[in-house]
DNA sequence: GTTTACACGTCAATGGTGTTGACGTAAGGT
DNA sequence: ACCTTACGTCAACACCATTGACGTGTAAAC
């Protein structure tokens, strides 16, 4: 067996499957995303994907070395979609903020797929384009390279980590998700001020705040701290 | 079958397994954590856990309804361990920092338990204790309640999100993990300065920085921003 | 001390998973 | 029109979580 995967570029012989489908990397990725969107992350198996494509499951191995390679392709597709139509304004803080919120939004919009790929390094074109852009924003804002890199790292990991977390919560089976939300009322709402004074004192605020994602505020904190570092570097722009 | 799980409290008949082990909820959780610690991410399966305990795999279903219940029990144990021995110094920034790093560290040390448990709200005692403590640190530092709650939210979600992300990366099958690390050399190291000037210019810094978790720096940025907000609130302490 | 009930460990089976080697056919280059 | 070989298919392997049936050892009841 060894090398059964042919790079997408140099593919010439596309033979229709028994059921008439003509396979391609793109078609497989799109079908996988659709499968996940409709039937949840658990629905993504080689066998089911093969069935959805109208092909033998093992045909996928002509396009991806293994399921991990397929996963990376899916993850990269999401990164690409997050950037589609994004435009720089020239103000670094505005640009980073919109980029972060976009990444977060697209992952949360595809919860099941996000859970699978949010913590991977794909090295694929969409990903490298995003890295290049974010680094560019920071460097042209005046951050020296060493600092730009550290902030890039914190920024990207923060965006992906929150995205994955919020996506995961959204992708939970309905029963489990409702259970987790109930806990705020049934447990935290009933803790005694004697044993848990701080929770009791802030409970209404807490219950309200925890309903939404903590990301936007966390992002603003990070950007604020970065701005402070920048003004230390170049006290006068 | 239906209800084969008996609550741990009301258990009376403990029959030794063929290999002489006497099972208990506690023993199973501890063995699972040991299995993960010693043999890595892939080692945690019902079959292998059964083998490690010296029992038939299906015996576990007398103690946990399914593997998800088992993993939640493990996650709860982790929250407890993260706080074991933690002491407040009285300096809010130091205390939050050590709490965040502890949470992160304990989750990363037990990757797949973290992946499944980091985005759940359990409402169990270990969890409420942690919430109470963190809120207490912020409120006694002088943050007004509304702000304390928002910062609490950002802080906790960030700690858990990064923890889950780094844990997930660590829980990857060795092949995939090495692949992801290799990508920095094989892809990002070879991008042309023409198409990717910012990556090319900072590559050595980038490759070095991305090897470690972005959390400690992200945490410091967040705490720095919080400190700035505090000094706005109470310009003079 | 003996009997009895049933908790719980074991066995076997089900239906799922990713992955691979062998094989034949049809597509493309010549 | 012929060859080569890419690629879709088939069958098999080894693993996974989960469950119903079964019998035995334990602990309570007498």
UniProtKB/TrEMBL annotation, chains A, B:
The record's keywords, sorted A to Z, are:
DNA-binding, Transcription, Transcription regulation
Q: Which InterPro entries does this entry report, sorted A to Z?
A: Homeodomain-like_sf, HTH-type_TetR-like_transc_reg, HTH_TetR, Repressor_TetR_C, Tet_transcr_reg_TetR-rel_C_sf
The UniProt entry's GO biological process terms, in alphabetical order, are: negative regulation of DNA-templated transcription
The entry's protein name is TetR family transcriptional regulator
Natural source organism: Streptomyces gardneri
Q: Residue ranges of the DNA-binding region?
A: 45-64
**What region holds the HTH tetR-type domain?**
22-82
* Gene Ontology MF: a single term: DNA-binding transcription factor activity
Q: Which PROSITE patterns match?
A: HTH_TETR_2
The organism's superkingdom is given as Bacteria
């Amino acid at each position: 067996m060894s090398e059964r995967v042919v790079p997408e570029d140099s593919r010439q012989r596309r033979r229709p499957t028994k059921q008439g489908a003509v396979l391609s990397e793109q078609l497989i990725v799109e079908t996988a995303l659709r499968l996940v969107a409709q039937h949840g992350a658990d629905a993504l198996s080689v066998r089911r994907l093969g069935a959805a494509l109208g092909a033998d499951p093992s045909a996928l191995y002509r396009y991806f070395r293994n399921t991990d390679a397929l996963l990376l392709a899916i993850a990269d597709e999401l990164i690409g979609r997050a950037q589609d139509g994004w435009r720089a304004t020239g103000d670094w803080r505005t640009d980073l903020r919109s980029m972060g919120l976009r990444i977060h939004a697209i992952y949360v919009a595809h919860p099941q797929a996000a859970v699978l790929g949010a913590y991977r390094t794909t090295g694929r074109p969409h990903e490298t384009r995003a890295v290049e852009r974010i680094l560019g924003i920071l460097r042209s804002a005046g951050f020296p390279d060493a600092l730009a890199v550290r902030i890039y790292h914190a920024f990207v990991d923060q965006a992906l980590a929150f995205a994955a977390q919020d996506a995961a919560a959204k992708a939970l089976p309905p029963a489990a998700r409702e259970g987790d939300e109930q806990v705020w009322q049934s447990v935290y709402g009933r803790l005694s001020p004697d044993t848990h004074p701080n929770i009791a004192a802030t409970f209404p605020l807490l219950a309200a705040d925890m309903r939404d994602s903590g990301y936007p505020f966390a992002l603003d904190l990070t950007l604020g701290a970065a701005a402070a570092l920048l003004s230390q570097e170049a006290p006068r722009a």
